[in-house]
Write a structure and sequence with these properties.
Blueprint lengths: L1 H30 L8 H22 L4 H11 L9 H25 L1 H11 L14 H18 L3 H17 L8 H8 L5 H7 L4 H4 L9 H5 L29 H6 L7 H4 L21
Helix pairs in contact: 1-7, 2-6, 3-6, 3-7, 4-5, 4-6, 4-7
This protein binds zinc ion.
């Protein structure tokens, strides 16, 4: 099975990506939550070009796939989970990888040099399925390095790595979809997974909201580590997306997306620390924060 996955994972992942992207794009076509500020075709071209460039750079810089690292780790019996039964390795390996991604996302917001790179994702003035692939190549390189270290340290089996990569990719597109779920469904799903309604608060231009709701798959990390925002203070339909200093459409071109991390002049203007510092366990914020 693992051998088959290694040999066919690229085509499997491309096929799943195309299916998920098409389904979510079709959903947005019929139930769009906000009108598009830039034509979808233009957005797709830019965002897909950015992700294609990242994948090419990753292939050049990393001679092995993440799944190959997992197979080597498994063969050598390395990692924290190596003595657990296989089923436990797969389940806990998957959960551990999601926690690692949550922590990585927090660090991308915490440190200025990382924020410079990650802000390319946040500069989008609205979100749709294509925002899910809008990441600077430097962010993809750092993320791959973190994932490889995580797989080796935790000892995540190849099967869990494959499922995690596929599900993380699908979830990243799902949470950016330009659709508003019915309130009941939203509330129910949020108990376990990240929803579009929860993640779009993370794209608010209001700093304390930008610095919250970091999760990708499971919603419990934000609740556990006190970074959960239930609702936007400006109201679900009214809040502004993107970054205050990057509302000009010129920042949305492929060229400027690639150059923004190196724009040192604007760095100090944007970064603001999150307001909350207290550690609360599974406690929901029921009152909106004051602006
Ligand atoms: Zn972010």
């Amino acid at each position: 099975m693992e051998q088959w996955l290694i040999q066919n994972q690229v085509w499997c992942r491309i096929l799943i990506f195309l299916c998920v992207f098409s389904m979510l794009a079709a959903w947005e076509t019929f139930y769009a939550w906000r009108p598009w500020l830039i034509a979808r075709k233009t957005r797709w071209m830019r965002h897909l070009s950015l992700t294609c460039l990242s994948k090419i750079i990753l292939r050049v810089l990393f001679p092995v796939f993440l799944i190959t690292v997992a197979v080597r780790v498994e063969q050598k019996g390395m990692g924290l989970l190596s003595h657990f039964p296989y089923a436990a390795q797969v389940i806990f390996g998957f959960i551990a990888m999601d926690l690692i991604m949550y922590m990585q996302h927090r660090l991308f917001h915490k440190y200025q040099w990382l924020w410079r790179i990650h802000r390319v994702h946040h500069m989008d003035r609205q979100i749709d399925v294509s925002t899910g692939v809008r990441f600077h190549p430097l962010e993809e390189i750092i993320s791959m390095g973190v994932k490889m270290l995580g797989v080796a340290f935790v000892g995540v089996p190849a099967l869990a790595v494959f499922f995690f990569e596929v599900i993380l990719n699908a979830m990243t597109m799902f949470v950016h979809v330009n659709v508003c779920l019915p309130r009941r469904v939203e509330r129910l799903l949020r108990k376990v997974i990240i929803t579009p309604g929860m993640h779009r608060i993370h794209h608010s231009d209001y700093s304390p909201e930008t610095n919250s709701n970091y999760g990708f798959c499971f919603s419990w990390w934000d609740k556990m580590f006190d970074s959960y925002t239930l609702v936007s203070t400006a109201g679900e339909r009214k809040f502004t997306m993107g970054l205050e200093d990057y509302q000009d459409p010129k920042y949305q071109t492929l060229e400027n997306m690639l150059l923004v991390p190196f724009n040192i002049k604007r760095l100090k203007v944007r970064y603001k620390k999150p307001l909350k510092t207290k550690f609360k366990l599974f406690e929901e914020i029921t009152q909106p924060k004051k602006r």
